[in-house]
Design brief:
The chain is an all-alpha fold and about 70 residues long. About 55% of the residues lie in helices and about 0% in strands. α2 packs across α3.
Length: about 70
Amino acid sequence: MRALVGRNVRGIRLEKGLTQEQFAEITGFSQQYISGLEQGHRNPTVVTLFELAQGLGVSPTELLRPARAGKA
């Protein structure tokens, strides 16, 4: 689950054209936290998932969806 969330956060962040640093500034999390999350090393809480989704402009459920065909 951690790896899935990390892949989804990274994929959506890149689709939005944001660097980790820009995303960290938007969300208030550190760049190190974002990096660890995207690598699947962090275990985000429900509140954190909500805040990350808000920063990306997506529904929190988007961060939990299995990868779709053609998407990394």
